[in-house]
Every structure is written in structure tokens, then in C-alpha cells.
Amino acid sequence: MTFPPGPALARDQRAAAHDGGPPLHAGASRHSLTMTASPDFFIGHIPVFGRAILAPMDGFSDWPFRSLCRELGSALSYTEFVNAREVPANGKYVRDKLRFTEDERPIVFQLYGDDPDEIVRAALQVQALQPDAIDINMGCPAKSIANRGAGVGLMRTPLKVARIFRRLSRMLQIPVTGKIRLGWEDCRTYRLIARVVEENGGQALAVHARTREQGYSGRADWDAIAEIRQLLSIPLIGNGDVQTPEDIARMRNYTGCDAVMIGRAAIGNPWIFAGLRREAVSLEQLESLVREHLRRNLAFYGPELGLVLFRKHAVQYIRPFMPDRAVRTRLLRAETPQAFWQQFERLLAARKGR
Questions:
Q1: Which of these is catalytic: 69, 140, 187, 257?
Q2: I want to staple 73 with a disulfide (CB 3.0 to 4.6 A). Which of 10, 45, 273, 322 is the partner?
Q3: Tens digit of pLDDT for each residue in 40-58?
Q4: pTM of the predicted model as reported, rounded to 2 decimal places
């Protein structure tokens, strides 16, 4: 997949808060830099460089946003989840979700479903697209998914989880991983499911430390992540209540997890992967990144849909400015990229004048 080249925005933004390694510079690729470093951990045979990872999020971890986060330091690229049932048709829905560029590697395709046969067929089919790993979603709390036994619904059926992972680990030529929650309030099976994943060939596990009923609210239970760490020898990725670069180190120190997955806190703040607090991001850095994000959206989705789908990101980028409703409305209702930039530049100019 090829898109028009954009500016190497990461070279300055990531170098500004790089955590001790060599800064990205003109002409240097991420691959050339990591070749001289030791991996932080492995997923199967796949080396992973870095400890912070963008979470797979439906509607957000598409190629435009995911690739920016990768450039700024996210150690892996997870696609948005794909319904295993939809894969055989190979429609535009599936193709768009699974499109990636080589510089995103390691790339992980995430599938969801409730039928082991459908999941295995889908995994074997998408393996031909050459991802580095395939992840099984066992954490989505949406009623339409969980109540039919997919997503976190799978955590109620450990024998089914065992069948899925046993078959995938035997039939795939690439690692299979899983992402779970703590389970349901009346069925907290996270310890059992974690063991089932490892014992049946799973090569890594990500844990969102909330139950299905909590959704994305309430406090994440880091103690549960620490419990799982004691049970497993495969890499463990913790997820939940990480808002700042300092939280990444705090979760790792508290739980012993190998890496930290960041979801909602990265929306409007991809600089977290560069170790930069949002309040430390300059207006110049903001303008550069927003411009590039919009460019990628337009290249990926086309001029009309690309702008419409960018609005949910724009809302988060301007949230720290707390603009009044009229300003926000003019920006978000802009009908062309040019009109959007006119409004955005006025907003920046007003901030610079303070």
C-alpha cells in the first residue's frame, strides 16, 4: 500500500523527548536504528523494540492514526478488529481494516468472533497478507459482540478459547496472541483464560484490567495484571488508566508487565509514545502533526470521507484549548480541507496571541 510521502514529522517530535536512544534524523529509518539496539522482548520469533503500544480501537486505530503513533514510538501496530465472519468475502470493509505499510512492522491483525471454525478460516486467509502476528479479541464489551459470545463473551467459554488457540498455534506460521479483560463481574476468569492462552500456544497476552460491566469507566485493577504476570512466561501487555508517560513506567514497575498498551489517552495525544506530556507539545508540533494526520486521512479515505472521519480526531486535538462552541462548530463543520485549515489556523493564531 503506497500513499504520497509526507514530512518526517517524527524526527523532531520524537527526538524532543526520546528516552535515551538515538534521535530519528533525516535519512534514518526506524529499521536502521533498531538494527543497532537489542529488542525489549519477543512475541514468538518477532522482536519488539519499545514498551508502549497503541491499543487496537475500532474507529480509531486505522492506518492514518496508527502509522503516526508508530512513527512517534508505538512499538507495535495493531489493526482495528475485523469480524472473522466477514473475512471470506474479502470486501472493502476487510481490505481497509487490514491495509498497512511496511514501515509499520511488526503489524498485528486483530480478529473477533464466537465460532472457532470461522476464526481459524479467517486467520488462515489473512495470514496470506503477511502480518507478523494475529491477535484474538477477547475484550470488546459492546453488547452486540459480547452477548453473542465474541469479544469478552469468549471469556465465559474457556474450552472454546482453548480450541481456538490450540488450532491456530498449530496451523499458523506466525504467532497468535490474545487480548482480554478481567471477565464479567459474575465470572472473572482472567487467571484461567490467561493460562489457557499460554498452554495452547499463545505467544503474548494483553490485559485490559477492567470487567465487561465497567466498560471504559472506573478504576483499572493493576493488581490483576500483576497476578497474571506471576502466572505466565509469555510477554504480558498491561492496559488501563495510563494517561501520561510517567504512568507507563509506573504500570510496568507495579505489575511487572513487559509493555503498556495505551488506548483513549492516545487519541488527540499521540506524543505520549514519544514520552511527551500533552501540555509540553508546542503549537508548531501540533500544527505539523495535525496537518500530516489530515493528509493521511485524505489519502486513505478520499477527500470527502477523509475529512468527515478526521473530525473525531480534531475534537481531541483542540480539547486542551477549550474553544467556545461557535469556534468548535465552525472548525468541525468545515466542508473542505482548505476551509478546515482556515479555521484551524485562526485557532492557532488566537493561541499564539495569548
A1: 140
A2: 273
A3: 999 999 999 999 999 999 9
A4: 0.89
